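Sample pair:
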Amino acid sequence: MMTMHAGRRVHHRQELRVARKPGTRAEFTLFDVFYEDGSQRSNRRVPSEILGGLDGDAPASAVIEEQDRIIAEKSGSPASPIKSMRRSGGTMSRR
């Protein structure tokens, strides 16, 4: 079946391609997190824009603690305190 769209004939199954503006792409840094109970979570995403500067990776722990709080609320299980964390594929850093 053919239809008219913007003066063009288009097959019913054919999709129209629309130009889109490139969106701002959020970039993340991944962290491996080690908890006091011995558990580990890998590849925790932290916005790269908050890292660096004088504080280095310190702001990452606040972001991950907030993520853990939200997860704990939804799951009904208490969050374990963070023992240490490192950038995924990096060296260990103590809190």
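The chain has a mean pLDDT of 81.
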